[in-house]
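Hi everyone,

Forwarding the result from last night's run.
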Amino acid sequence: MVILTGETLTLDEVKRIVMDRESAELSKGTENTVSKSRETVEAMVSEKETVYGINTGFGKFSDVIIDEADLETLQLNLIHSHACGVGEPFSETISRTMLLLRANALIRGHSGVRPILIRQMLALLNAGIHPVVPQQGSLGASGDLAPLAHLALPLLGEGDVFYQGKPLAASDALRDASIEPVTLQAKEGLALINGTQAMTAVGVVTCLEMERLLNQSEQIASMTLEGLHGIIDAFAPDVHRLRGHQEQVDVAARIRSLLQDSRLTTRQGEKRVQDAYSLRCIPQVLGASWQTLNYVREKLEIEINAVTDNPLIFPETNQAISGGNFHGEPIALAMDFLKLGIAETANIAERRIERLVNPQLNDLPPFLSPNPGLESGAMIMQYTAASLVSENKTLAHPASVDSIPSSANQEDHVSMGTIAARHAHTMLGNARRVVAIELICAMQAVTHRGVDQMASQTRELYKHARKMVPSISADRIFARDIEAMENWLMRYSVG
């Protein structure tokens, strides 16, 4: 079980809750903090103070005063009108992450909601009821309005969910799980949708998957070095110490460790003086990708504990202050930055694939084919990798540099952070497929060189990966191999 305080959640704890299915519960004392914030809102309602989002309209309608008798209707109308996302739904993993992060933000006690609303979100999370949330429709300010409106609907017994592996009406899922729908009160609809939890959830999932992929890339690149008789001298510690980037130093050290007992690597001048950049510069390129990931991880761990709605409630001073914490710019810029690290991880992997299959660049069978000419071998796998890398280059264009005014120009600068996060996640999937193709080709190369001469650690990788994709003894439908390897990489953890 993970205890939520609203301030201490880590990415590792998100993984435990979202992917490992540990339960999440409120920490002791947080309900009291949330209740004080709620009491402040109720006092403002009873004293008929004019406060944005409590007894006014939204956006350009902020100067429209709402009668007290209509405040619950105002909040329900907000959820209904803003639930206009389109496109394919986010994965259950991302939807689950959104639920967790929105609950964690409300726990801080600056949103003015009742504790029952947070308990409802955690009840759905722990019961495995995941809202169906369309991917498209957010500008990233005022937060992720459309996606979070879809996230909110099942709390009320409306909309659709994924439950027990299939789509279902939320009302049916709540009934099956013995969870009663809630009715929104003043401020609560706005508190549910004014935040950055869609872009942040996608960012968190992408970050966790990217960490796994970078570790795998180092192992697979090490196998490629063996398949191409790569020169180990380029990974000498003194070389990387002189550059000074710790991530580069660390990548070189891990590759030296992976290959320490290999009989397939060579020394400088033994077969050639130096290797091509895609081999020699693995630490420099993957080290830089690790730098982007580390930056993004830092920003995400701030954001998953942030209060990002509006207005913010301050019970100690009885204030409701309108600000802009819903603006997604910090995450938008971070995700656009991560896209570059993802792109370069795939770019250099594709170049290593080319060196593995191109007979003009190695002494292996042309295209790793068992019968060159009659059989094409891995020729078109390199085409696929090149296509994926090219697609990533178009997706790497920064979404955060764009802005389109909305709400009659009241909201005149937006982040497009959710687009940046979605593109990063798409790119990560493309990169994983490229790395899967490199692994297939690297395994074929070391099969030709002699598996018994591999380093013990890369041979262990080979042993497990060979269960997914057999050796190429004849042409076959290689799309199935790529898919099998990609799916395995999504589960495989570097030991």
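The mean pLDDT is 96.

Cheers,
N.
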